């Protein structure tokens, strides 16, 4: 990610942007007008120096001694994260994880919405809709269904052995961003952004630190 000044933002900072946005939304809901770096840091669980360093990549977001304008920063991060308008998302793979994601109300928390889902053509749910009226199609219909649907983002929740094949189909259909729950590295064009979510790895890391203490 880059700022307007074309300064490269560290990945660790980029991963905290949504946390900052969430905190400022919470502060705004609590009618807090100003917040300093210590308050922000404590709400996220990091140190205030990290907050100030993160914010420094975006220029003057606040004035020393005056704190940060909560509403202004909430709107700033909303724009930065493209949360000022609805982002349509597609889901591929409606197994156990996929069904849970279909029931997760992204649009009630942020302006992201799963508008269609896909699975193998012979999957029993193909041709049906979810409880939230999300249509489920066969994977052979991906290219046809996303034409004109304003979808550039996909959630991938398929078996590892199928992940690369399905991801390649998504890219050919015009997808530019993939959130993958399949624990395998995907070889895709450089202009396609991939974010991995490996729940098993995260749980193992948690257990490691628990036993270490």
Automatic annotation (TrEMBL):
This protein's record includes keyword Transcription regulation: yes
Localization, UniProt: Cytoplasm
Keywords per UniProt: Cytoplasm, DNA-binding, NAD, Repressor, Transcription, Transcription regulation
Binding-site residues for NAD(+), renumbered to this chain: 93-98
Residue spans binding DNA: 19-58
Domain CoA-binding positions: 82-185
Main location: cytoplasm
Residue stretches spanning the membrane: none
One Pfam short name: CoA_binding
NCBIfam families documented for this protein: PRK05472.1-1, PRK05472.1-3, PRK05472.1-5, PRK05472.2-3, PRK05472.2-4, PRK05472.2-5
The protein's assembly and partners: Homodimer.
Family: Belongs to the transcriptional regulatory Rex family.
Purpose: Modulates transcription in response to changes in cellular NADH/NAD(+) redox state. Binds to the promoter of the aldehyde-alcohol dehydrogenase adhE gene. Functions as a redox-dependent repressor of adhE expression.
Protein known as: Redox-sensing transcriptional repressor Rex
Gene (UniProt): rex
């Amino acid at each position: 990610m880059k700022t307007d000044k074309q300064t490269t933002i560290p990945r660790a900072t980029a991963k905290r942007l949504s946390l900052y946005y969430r905190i400022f939304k919470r502060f705004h809901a609590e009618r807090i007008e100003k917040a300093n770096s210590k308050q922000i840091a404590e709400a996220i669980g990091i140190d205030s120096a990290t907050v100030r360093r993160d914010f420094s990549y975006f220029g003057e977001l606040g004035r020393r001694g005056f704190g940060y304008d909560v509403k202004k920063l909430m709107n700033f991060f909303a724009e930065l994260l493209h949360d000022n308008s609805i982002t349509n998302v597609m889901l591929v793979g409606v197994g156990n994880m996929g069904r849970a994601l279909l029931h997760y109300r992204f649009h009630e928390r942020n302006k992201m919405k799963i508008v269609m889902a896909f699975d193998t053509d012979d999957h029993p749910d193909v041709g049906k809709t979810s409880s939230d009226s999300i249509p489920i199609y066969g994977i052979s219909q991906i290219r046809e269904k996303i034409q004109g649907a304003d979808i550039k983002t996909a959630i991938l929740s398929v078996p590892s052995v199928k992940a690369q094949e399905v991801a390649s189909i998504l890219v050919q259909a015009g997808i530019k961003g993939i959130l993958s729950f399949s624990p395998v590295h995907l070889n895709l064009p450089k202009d396609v952004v991939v974010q991995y979510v490996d729940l098993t790895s995260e749980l193992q890391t948690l257990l490691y630190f628990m036993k270490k203490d």
